[in-house]
Design a protein that fits this description.
Layout lengths: L2 H6 L1 E5 L5 H12 L5 H9 L5 E7 L2 E12 L7 E10 L8 H12 L6 E4 L16 E11 L10 E4 L21 H8 L7 E8 L2 E12 L2 E11 L4 H11 L3 E5 L8 E13 L32
Parallel strand pairs: 4-5, 10-11
Antiparallel strand pairs: 1-2, 2-3, 3-4, 5-12, 6-11, 6-12, 7-8, 8-9, 9-10
Length: about 300
């Protein structure tokens, strides 16, 4: 194969909603998972800021990177992007196609963006050509419990449609990403809302809420803690109580632990890329007292409409 000749014929551009079939085919070939048009539209076309960039050989999509628009949880709430749906057709891997796509996306589209969030795995460590000193790396740990349920239940579950009822409690000071009611509405009410519930715990005058996904896969039924809002003071206590109450609970931790009823499922890599060198002075403190949640990732998003 004449790689140079083929590269010269490749087309780099933003995806349009009419490119769904090509996106769907590439997604299945890379991940062996089916996706719906509803997922594609919700994830990348529900606002004017999120998007996908792709590489086309003629009319065929051979590589893609998705970028979700978010806000940083600081005083300025500045716009940042989180990278998802990174995929390359197998025959085009290892020859620089995906790296070229990231370079062009950074140069042409992300030139005014301060930070880029990446979730690298063992198959994908591409980083928009950022150097090691321009990246903050953090590892988290995904656990599942096999606890016995307690007889006295201290938490209460609500339908996700009750989110509006709890609107006044939505504050997420410790979240790395800025999350208000609109964020939670778009994330959990706009697509596959039937999969989610709200778990509430009260202690004295403090009220804490977890958003949980009822997760069904080949291993059975599990319950995934995706997000939190409400009182930060009792969030840890809420988690410990929920672990005692709910079998097969999946959650994210900052540190490894060793407990007989806690199974380590996998690691989760979280990288922050500093596109603007002027921001590097914030590198050491950018994650200080900030939390990442499983709802920030794609891991437990159902890609088919239910």
């Amino acid at each position: 194969m004449n790689l140079k000749l083929n590269k010269s014929k490749l087309i780099y551009r933003k995806l349009e909603i009419t490119d769904f079939k090509e996106f769907q085919n590439l997604f299945y070939l890379c991940f062996k998972r089916r996706i719906s048009f509803e997922f594609f539209k919700w994830r990348y076309f529900s606002n004017n800021l999120s998007f996908c960039c792709g590489v086309f050989e003629s009319s065929r999509l051979i590589a893609n990177v998705g970028l979700i628009s978010l806000k940083l949880n600081n005083n300025h709430h500045e716009r940042i992007f989180s990278r998802h749906s990174s995929m390359v057709l197998k025959r085009y891997r290892g020859i620089g196609v995906f790296s070229d796509l990231l370079k062009k996306t950074r140069r042409d589209i992300l030139k005014n963006t301060q930070l880029i969030i990446m979730w690298p795995n063992k198959n994908n460590f591409a980083n928009f050509s950022l150097s090691t000193k321009e990246i903050v790396k953090k590892k988290f740990y995904l656990y599942q419990t096999t606890s016995r349920k307690t007889f006295l239940k201290k938490t209460k579950n609500y339908s996700i449609v009750q989110l509006l009822k709890f609107k006044k409690y939505i504050q997420c000071k410790d979240s790395f990403f800025f999350k208000n009611f609109l964020y939670f509405k778009n994330r959990y009410l706009s697509y596959n809302r039937g999969e989610y519930l709200i778990n509430k715990y009260e202690s004295k005058k403090n009220i804490s809420f977890f958003i949980i996904k009822i997760n069904k896969d080949n291993s059975g039924l599990s319950y995934v803690i995706l997000d939190h809002f409400g009182s930060e003071k009792i969030r840890r206590k809420h988690l410990l109580i929920l672990i005692r109450e709910q079998n097969n609970l999946i959650f994210l931790l900052k540190r490894k632990i060793t407990k007989s009823n806690h199974k380590l499922l996998s690691d989760l890599n979280f990288n922050i890329g500093f596109i603007k060198k002027s921001r590097l002075k914030q590198k050491k403190k950018i994650l200080n007292k900030k939390e990442i949640f499983l709802g920030d990732t794609d891991i437990f998003i159902t890609t088919k409409k239910i």
